[in-house]
Design goal:
With about 650 residues, the chain is an alpha/beta fold. The protein is built from 17 helices and 24 strands. The structure holds alpha-D-galactopyranose and zinc ion (ZN). Zinc ion binds next to α6.
């Protein structure tokens, strides 16, 4: 059965409350209680003195009520004694100076001294609890980000990492093109992290920036692996993960989760709903992206249960139906565990106004009731965890694209995530089953592959996509593809989209980075679309023109093309369009490749399916605050605001 979890901080509450808390959670339907995440100062109050007695009692209380525990290593928040005894464990900021401690997450995850202490507390926990039947799983640290610390040991580690990769300073100079602006180095000591308070990322050498991001992602993966190895050393069968969020210092998720058993995500969907804009399906996008980390079902380790506070002014109360609806949405996109954040809002500490399930008054409330309803619904589908999601359309996501495009702006408003989201939005809007995949994933079994903005080029991917298309698949390539080599330098001597030119049957004659300004394109079928951001002026080399620009000096030139290749075809979308453009393209692809879709879904309705040994379930979620209805197999499906309806394989509605 899909499990419901709850974050609980026994160290923040009087012991007299624990029993009643556990009883209430169990009665609600909670099966897994998430513990110890920030409790290092209680577990090791002074260097080498460990106090696990209180955690033992909390675990006993919880398990006596029939629940299991999910244990977190407390390494996000090191105790204050560690920072004063070993100041070199404090992270340094963009100015190169130690950051002020007193909040949380101040540790440098690369510092060898910090690593030693983190390994020791992890070892103590694993030795005590790993392998016990009451332990459901493990979370490493909390909401890890790629390391951008500038402390002396991080500077040294960056140099070491580069040295291992390039061998000589001459090789590095060549790879990075350091002759520009006299950037050549003659000694590894001359390498500095490309960060400072006063400069924009795109003022640094992009080749250096990309390696710096890769290094940060590597540090994170290395940190995760160390704790994972300790836990697995005590229990090889333990389920170990870490909880992600989409942060400024984005990691390489593939690498981060490679050694972990399951992907996990902290799911805080918007409480003020975008009525229409590009972010309409953004929460669904996040969930689908998390499913791609390990290409299988995932866990939600923090699920919205109340209004936020602390990290921003307090937000609005969740509308009725939101807590249940969003939790169901996570399940509909592949979550097998949904753990709510948090049982009760704390009475002290910075996050006291960040709302959990219960308010400070400790009374049952409507949020608790919604979680209860969510639990009851899951009980109706006891085999749901034996199902998974598999679409017929795949979309590729690459960490290198993320890194390179974040640090070197293409045109005002142009963003990698927007490129991805526009296609995802079209698939959601048409009820098309879509899987996001890492760029090196096998493509067998898919009918169409969307590869928006494959900017840092892997020529092997171009060859694989040619093979896929030759055998009858449809591929979509877009603007800013085939631009850079693996070092993030521009490819020389070949018209864009370089390695994709043969597949797409067109070349970019010239481009116009129009930024926030508008253009217009007219499609061959008579429809027209507003476009913005970027305009590739295309010259077909065998491809058919799907749409042409209507304005400026390139009016009449091709903007979107379609090329027959083997028994399949490749689209090239040279610009960034409004929603309707992507809808039209996806609908055409589905018709031609016989991919199921649902036309006539109201905006904001999501349709997904989980199938497998546990049966077939189709999910219909109204992610809006309007009541909607739509036709489905000759019936009308009506959905209240935030309502999820579920249809089992035998046609029954649950
Ligand atoms: C993050 C953290 C939690 C908490 C929540 C509050 O997800 O992991 O500890 O701070 O945000 O929204
Ligand atoms: Zn550091």
């Amino acid at each position: 059965m899909i499990k419901v979890g709850m974050a609980y901080y026994p160290e923040q509450w009087d012991r007299s409350l624990w029993e009643d808390d556990a009883a209430r959670m169990a009665k609600l339907g909670v099966r897994v209680v998430r513990l110890a995440e920030f409790a290092w100062s209680r577990l090791e109050p002074s260097e080498g003195r460990f106090h696990f007695g209180w955690l033992d009692s909390a675990i006993d209380t919880i398990t006596r009520h029939g629940m299991q525990v999910l244990l977190c290593t407390p390494t996000n928040s090191a105790p204050m004694w560690l920072y004063t005894d070993h100041p070199e464990t404090v992270q340094c900021g963009r100015d190169g100076r130690p950051i002020a401690t007193g909040i949380r997450g101040h540790r440098c995850i690369q510092s060898p001294v910090f690593r030693r202490y983190a390994a020791r507390i992890t070892t103590e926990m694993a030795r005590r609890y790993a392998g016990r039947p009451e332990v459901y799983g493990w979370q490493i640290d909390n909401e890890l980000e790629s390391s951008h610390c500038t402390c002396p040991s991080c500077r040294e580690a960056f140099r070491r990492w580069l040295r291992e990769r390039y061998g000589t300073t001459a090789a590095l100079n060549k790879a990075w093109g350091n002759e520009v602006w006299s950037g050549e180095i003659s000694d590894w000591e001359q390498i500095q992290p490309p960060v400072s308070e006063d400069y924009m990322p795109d003022w640094y050498n992009p080749a250096c920036m990309l390696d710096y991001e890769r290094f940060g992602a590597w540090c994170l993966a290395d940190y995760v692996r160390q704790q994972r190895d300790i836990i697995k050393g005590y229990d090889p069968d333990a389920t170990v993960t870490t909880n992600s969020w989409f942060c400024a210092n984005m990691p390489d998720f593939q690498q981060e989760y490679a050694c972990l058993d399951v992907a996990a995500y902290d799911n805080y969907p918007p409480m003020v709903l975008p009525e229409d804009g590009e972010t309409l399906y953004s929460n669904a996008f996040g969930l689908d992206l998390v499913r791609s980390f390990k290409r299988k079902n995932f866990w939600i380790l923090e699920q919205l249960a109340g209004a936020g506070g602390c990290w921003s002014p307090m937000g609005p109360a969740p509308e009725p139906g939101m807590i249940e609806g969003y939790a169901m949405q996570a399940v509909a996109h592949g979550a097998d565990l949904v753990s709510f954040f948090r049982w009760r809002s704390s009475c002290s500490g910075a996050e006291m106004l960040g709302h959990g399930v219960l308010d400070h008054d400790d009374r049952d409330n409507r949020r608790l009731a919604e979680i209860g309803r969510f639990c009851r619904r899951l009980e109706q589908m006891p085999d749901l965890d034996r199902t998974s999601i598999r679409g017929q359309v795949a979309m590729l996501y690459g960490a290198d694209q993320e890194f390179a495009l974040k640090n070197q702006r293409q045109s005002e408003g142009f963003a990698y995530w927007t490129q991805l989201r526009l296609f995802h939005d079209a698939c959601m809007g048409l009820g098309i089953g879509l899987d996001i995949l890492p760029e090196d994933a096998p493509l067998e079994g898919y009918k169409a592959v969307l590869a928006p903005t494959h900017y840092v080029t892997d020529p092997a991917l171009a060859r694989r996509l040619e093979g896929f298309t030759a055998q009858g698949g449809t591929v979509v390539i877009t603007n800013r593809s085939g631009v850079k080599d693996k070092h993030n330098n521009c490819l020389f001597g070949e018209p864009l989209p370089t390695v994709f030119r043969r597949l797409c049957g067109c070349r970019v004659k010239e481009y116009d980075a129009i930024g926030a300004r508008r253009q217009h394109i007219a499609a061959a079928d008579g429809s027209g679309y507003d476009v913005t951001g970027w305009c590739d002026i295309l010259e077909p080399e065998g491809a058919q023109v799907w749409a042409r620009y209507t304005e400026k000096f390139y009016a009449g030139a091709a903007a979107v093309t379609k090329n027959a290749f083997g028994t399949g075809c490749a689209y090239y979308v040279g610009t960034v369009g409004e929603r309707a453009l992507y809808r039209a393209l996806m609908a055409e692809i589905c018709r031609e490749r016989d991919i199921p879709m649902l036309e006539g879904l109201p905006l904001g309705v999501e349709v997904t399916a989980r199938r497998g040994q546990g049966g077939l379930y189709r999910f219909f979620f109204n992610n809006t605050l309007r009541a909607v209805d739509f036709p489905l197999d000759g019936q009308t499906v009506a959905l209240a605001p935030m309502e999820m309806k579920i249809q089992a394989g035998d046609g029954r509605w649950l």
